[in-house]
Design brief:
Rossmann fold, two-stranded antiparallel ribbon, phosphoglycolate phosphatase activity, 2 domains, three-stranded parallel beta sheet, mainly alpha
């Protein structure tokens, strides 16, 4: 949805320093992973105790960094092309509940979305975040459960749709029995997203492409259920 253009990395490094008491020399793999996984690896790779106490302190420090550097993020970061228009178009589909599934800590995700004016297009109470679970597949089930509890409706199988830009997003959706649309807006190519098993792939976010693929997935689910 957005790029921090280096601000996120800088804030993470400052949060690490506040907990570890030294600069970070080794860096965990980030793409498609949850924040707690990344934090534990960052601590362990740099010979710092990666127990729960330090991970929680690291998380709190990261939230504080984002809260206190909103201006930097707003000035340097950006919303990806087509995102606002696409979110607005999806929000107008009467049969869609739109939320977020992200490896970011919940408060960090909220700050990012607030800064760039995207928060109002989501029901953030129905989302799932990097401090809800370590495994991304578990986040899919958490979001599904929250949506069902809030609405009384059911979102089984293909009626839960994850749109993501990494192979881990695809794997998580498939593991949870959800539909998945791969979008090549990050470092993962269309070919990689297809090979990972995405049900549909897009080279970018546009209102027509995303609403079209969601309508197609819903139609296929209706056919399977005999509606």
């Amino acid at each position: 949805l957005l790029e921090t253009r280096g601000v996120g990395s800088r804030l993470s490094a400052q949060a690490f320093r506040s907990v570890a008491g030294k600069d970070q020399a080794q860096f965990a793999v980030i793409s498609g992973r949850t924040e707690f996984q990344i934090m534990r690896d960052n601590l362990a790779l740099n010979d710092v105790d990666c127990g729960d106490h330090n991970v929680r302190a690291y998380a709190a420090a990261l939230v504080e960094q984002y809260e206190s550097h909103r201006h930097d993020l707003a000035t340097v970061g950006r919303v990806l092309p087509g995102v606002q228009e696409t979110l607005d178009a999806v929000s107008r589909l009467p049969w869609v509940l739109q939320s977020v599934l992200t490896g970011n800590l919940r408060r960090v995700a909220e700050v990012k979305l607030e800064i760039f004016g995207l928060a109002s297009t989501f029901d953030l109470q129905l989302g799932s975040y990097g401090d809800d679970a370590d495994e991304r597949a578990d986040l899919v089930q958490i979001a599904r459960q929250r949506a069902e509890e809030a609405t009384g409706a059911r979102f089984p199988g293909a009626r839960t749709v994850l749109i993501g830009d990494t192979e881990n997003d695809v794997h998580a959706a498939l593991a949870a029995g959800a539909s998945v649309v791969g979008v090549a807006t990050g470092s993962t190519s269309l070919e990689q997203l297809t090979s990972a098993g995405a049900h549909a792939v897009l080279d970018g976010l546009t209102p027509s492409s995303v609403t079209g693929v969601l309508t197609s997935i819903a139609g296929q689910a209706d056919a399977v259920e005999g509606r």
